[in-house]
Amino acid sequence: MEAVHGHDHAHDHHHPTGITRWLTTTNHKDIGSMYLWFSFTMFITGGILALGIRAELFQPGLQLWKPEFFNQLTTMHGLMMVFGAIMPAFVGFANWQIPLMIGASDMAFARMNNFSFWLLPPAALLLASSFFVPGGATGAGWTLYAPLSVQQGMGMDLAIFAVHIMGASSIMGSINIIVTILNMRAPGMTLMKMPLFVWTWLITAYLLIAVMPVLAGAVTMLLTDRHFGTNFFNAAGGGDPVLYQHVFWFFGHPEVYIMILPAFGIVSQVIPTFARKPLFGYASMVYATASIAILSFIVWAHHMFVTGMPAAGQLFFMYATMLIAVPTGVKVFNWVATMWKGSMTFETPMLFSVGFLFVFTMGGFTGLVCAVAPIDIQIQDTYYVVAHFHYVLVAGSLFALFSGTYFWLPKWTGHMYDEKLGKLHFWLSMIFFNMTFFVMHFLGLAGMPRRIPDYSQQFADFNMIASIGAFGFGLTQLIFLAVIIKCIKGGPKAPAKPWEGADTLEWTLPSPAPYHTFETPPVVK
Amino acid sequence: MNHAEEAQGAFHVFSSRNDSLSPKGRRIFFVSMLAVSLTVATAWALQGAWYVLPFALIEMVVLSGALVIVERHADDCESISIDGDRVLVERRERGRVSRHCFDRHWVHVVVRESGKYGQYGLAMRSHGREVCFGAFLSDEQRRHLVAELRKRLRDY
After folding, report:
1. B130: which DSSP letter?
2. How many other CB atoms are there within 10 angstroms of residue A175's CB atom?
3. Residue A311's pLDDT is what?
4. Which residues are CB-neighbours of A350 under 8 A, at least 6 positions away?
5. How confident is the model at residue A256 (pLDDT cuts 50, 70, 90)?
6. Exposure winner among A165, A183, A461, A489, fewest CB in 10 A?
7. Do B26 and A186 touch (CB under 8 A)?
8. Average pLDDT of A13-41?
9. Does A38 score more than 60 pLDDT?
10. Is A11 a catalytic residue?
11. Residues of B with CB below 8 A from A218's CB?
């Protein structure tokens, strides 16, 4: 992409320093950085909880935790990773990259942007502090299924408030992103000239706006069932616990795509750059993303095949779910076709993107297995499902986030990262990830239920392998932290365009990107 | 600079805010969002989960507020006209129009390295009155405009 613009950023504007800068900032780069650090903190916190789970499961029998606390660990791990780590990380990327990629000076509503971020730390504190209230944190699972969630202690109330606050933050963030993309594109940048990352975020923001009220409604109904005498989900009072599952998954399934579509966007930026070829089938990528988003609204009950559903319902949700494989297949095909006969090099961002392609596709295939109702009834609530969604969320979303971080780190910090450490991070992550989660397929197929602190002797070996892998994966992330800190502190100076094949607007700016950029929009040719 | 014209010694420069979404586009976006959100919320309300509806409405109010703010700024623009003895700086911001008239003999262009609208700030000053301009121009365009204005004011 070529741009004609005049910018001379030798003298940056004056801006506040110290803590005031971070509390009051309305700069999209500052806010993006805060989102990214927040999400990394939550990733480490949620990761420590996961290691608590894996430590208990290292051997059969109860070693470390009481069963109730084990349930709290699994629940809080899920909530923190979904709402605290993955979602805010993508919003951080959106804050940093969208204005730079569309030639805008900042986000459309800069003060609301600051507020959206600062809602998150109190919500995270509510979640974390719920471990210390009487009865402990909620143990109802990240889905907060009724009737268990109607019965639990005040930790559940804290979780409900936290989800509300994080939801409000997401809604404000989405409105900001959608208005920025639609209204602040540089002259000449038509919708079909936008980078794929921007496209995927536009669709993600639309999804978020559509489904967040559903989550807010669901958890508020839980709250009033708990404290104000309503009986939405209480069967004893004439309510229906299955209604909660319907409402939750109507939010929850699009939520899955909210967590993966921006990942598709990142990979769609990285692969063409390191294949030194334009993205194969740009338009079909856009349509495939939109198709996935639309289909996400009509597949929710595939999470509920065992709740008792008419055969017609099972067939509808089964086939609708399998249909998602078509646009997803288009995407995988296009990424592979982009690499085909490309002049490829394998720097760390590309390694993570290719790794993403490999493992995410495996997660996609196991998703198809889960979509088949008769099979799903067998593997429902087993470790097969745990393996499936970790292949999608860790190998999918997280690997794409790593890829994007290494890709844009030179633009953010002005320094090149340590390539050797980056590659070490990739290979160890790849090995330990598969060590942890691949064996879970076998555990699930053999019938090991999820969310249990103890298990039958026959599952011992695979659990031991998974636990060793999990600790290895957790420790490997310290390498990532080391790379980031090292890169912020110094390193070889990054040129404006450190990647030969990169062609979006942000690479026309110096590295690090100046505090104020594109105060007047460039003209895209 | 979106537009500059010169006719019989008169000079006129017009620049406006960059909005990539037209008013019609904004309406289509809002209506589509409203339709999806309210359809979903109404469907759940009919199934008994009516709490979804107020949250959807609150969200749509926030979204419409955001779009109203965009709408208010959509016509933001400024122009500088030199005609005879008169220099007119016109600004339109949030629907409010302000006009500042200067005498061509007295007015001069002030340039700052760090201004309200960028690293290269411009203002017209005369008799203690100062009006900033150049909000919608790049630093490059501002430099070009200053040179042009100074030439025209000097040549008169």
Report:
1. E
2. 24
3. 94
4. A270, A271, A273, A274, A344, A403
5. very high
6. A489
7. no
8. 88
9. yes
10. no
11. 49, 51-52
Give the torsion sign (CA, A133, A134, A140, A145).
Answer: negative
Q: Is A253 a catalytic residue?
A: yes
Handedness of CA A490, A495, A496, A501 (dihedral sign): negative
pLDDT in tens, A155-186: 999 999 999 999 999 999 999 999 999 999 99
Whole-angstrom CA distances from A404 to A316, A346, B36 are: 37, 14, 31
Gap between the Cα atoms of A524 and A24, Å rounded: 32
State how far the Cα of A419 lies from the Cα of B88, in Å rounded to an integer. 58
Whole-Å CA distances, A411 to A32, A499, B88, B100 = 13, 11, 43, 43
Q: What confidence score (pLDDT) does residue B119 get?
A: 55
B141 contact A CB<8A: yes
Calculate the alpha carbon distances from A330 to A205, A289, A333 in Å.
22, 10, 5
Chain B contacts of A240, Cβ < 8 Å? Answer: 48
- Rounded to a whole number of angstroms, the distance between the first and last alpha carbons of chain A is 7
Q: Express each pLDDT in A292-320 by its tens digit.
A: 999 999 999 999 999 989 999 999 999 99
Q: Alpha-carbon distance A183 to A185, whole Å?
A: 6
Provide mean pLDDT across the span A434-450: 96
State the Cα–Cα distance between residues B83 and A287, nearest whole angstrom: 53
Which listed residue (A138, A169, A476, A508) is catalytic? A169
Output the pLDDT for position A519: 77
User: What's the CATH class of domain B3-15+78-154?
Assistant: mainly beta
Phi/psi at A200 (5° precision): -65, -35
Is residue B151 very low, low, confident or very high in pLDDT (cuts 50, 70, 90)?
confident
Q: What is the mean pLDDT of residues B61-66?
A: 94
State residue A14's pLDDT score: 57
Cβ-based neighbours of B47, under 8 Å, separated by 6 or more = A243, A246
The gap from C-alpha A121 to its chain's centroid, in whole angstroms, comes to 18
- What span, in angstroms and rounded, lies between the C-alpha atoms of A100 and A94? 10
Name the strand (E) or helix (H) holding B108: strand B108-112
Domain positions in chain B: 3-15+78-154, 23-72
Mean pLDDT score of chain A: 93
Answer whether B20 sits within 8 Å of A175, measured CB to CB: no
Length, in residues, of chain B: 156
Cβ-Cβ contacts under 8 Å, A189 against chain B: 20
**What spatial distance separates the first Cα and last Cα of chain B, rounded to whole Å?**
23
Assess whether A201 carries a catalytic annotation: no
Cβ atoms of residues A90 and A204 within 8 Å: yes
A423 burial class (0-12, 13-18, 19+ CB within 10 angstroms)? middle
